[in-house]
Write a structure and sequence with these properties.
heterodimer; A: 236 residues; mainly alpha; two-stranded antiparallel ribbon; 11 helices; B: 19 residues; 1 helix; 47% helix
Chain lengths: 236, 19
């Protein structure tokens, strides 16, 4: 009996189970077939995709245990400062199985040549640096969902009113990560720390993406949806 | 809130329609 019990995998952390269920469905970019292939078509598709992703991210955040307990103002502040990190982490996760390719959506992946042709090379190179980091760590789905929720809760927005409440959310997620790694990867005692240490590069990559999209907004050549504009402006 | 009205509405109402 003792042997059978020790061979049984540890039960999955309830927070991890919850976050796995809360994972959004796959999104498709559906580039406009009316536009000629090139930077305008790719950028239009990306801006449209980003707008739909923000809607999905807002719905996802509401499913994170503890997030709805924050005041509405703090929910807004947290999302306004961290949505792009959540979005970028999702792109990095989707790109993990593909060597040197950024998977913006299921039907929209760019290799170096494609990214250069689409005027997205600088952004893609930054994203690939993050992807390589997660690939080297062999990031798992359970870790990805925890890290994504932590990226949101790790908001350093100066507009947060009840910082203690946000800190509590952060602590619960941090504890879930430690518990998960402790039970699933006891042979790697520094793994949780290694994962948390990817958050600075995630923020840096999101800042590069913000710079890219803000440049597009200022260029005025690509139509952007209202929610996307609202969220971009909240970060400036 | 006026400047961030879509986010405000989505958080409050939870409906992604008519954006």
């Amino acid at each position: 009996i003792a042997t059978a019990t020790s061979k049984k995998p540890a039960p999955i952390n309830p927070m991890v189970s919850h976050l796995l269920v809360a994972e959004p469905e796959k999104l498709y970019a559906m580039p406009d077939p009316a536009l000629p292939d090139g930077p305008l078509r790719a950028t239009s598709a990306l801006c449209d995709l980003a707008d739909r992703e923000i809607v999905v991210i807002i719905g996802w955040a509401k499913n994170i245990p503890g997030f709805p307990a924050l005041s509405l103002a703090d929910q807004m502040s947290v999302l306004q400062s961290a949505w792009l990190e959540v979005l970028v982490l999702g792109v990095a996760w989707r790109s993990l199985p593909c060597e040197d390719e950024v998977v913006f959506a299921e039907d929209f992946a760019l290799d170096e040549e494609g990214a250069r042709a689409a005027g997205l090379w600088e952004l893609s190179a930054a994203l690939l640096q993050l992807v390589r980091k997660y690939r080297a760590l062999r990031l798992e789905r359970e870790e990805y969902v925890l890290l994504k929720a932590l990226a949101l809760a790790n908001s350093d927005s100066v507009h947060i009113e009840d910082m203690a409440a946000v800190q509590r959310l952060r602590d619960v997620l941090h504890e879930a990560l430690l518990e998960y790694e402790g039970s699933r990867r006891p042979e790697e005692p520094r793994r949780a720390g290694k994962l948390l240490l990817t958050l600075p590069l995630l923020r840096q990559t999101a800042a590069r993406a913000l710079h890219h999209f803000y440049g597009i907004k200022l260029g005025g050549k690509v139509p952007m949806h209202k929610l996307f504009l609202e969220m971009l402006e909240a970060m400036m | 809130t006026e400047r961030h009205k879509i986010l405000h509405r989505l958080l409050q109402e939870g409906s992604p329609s008519d954006i």
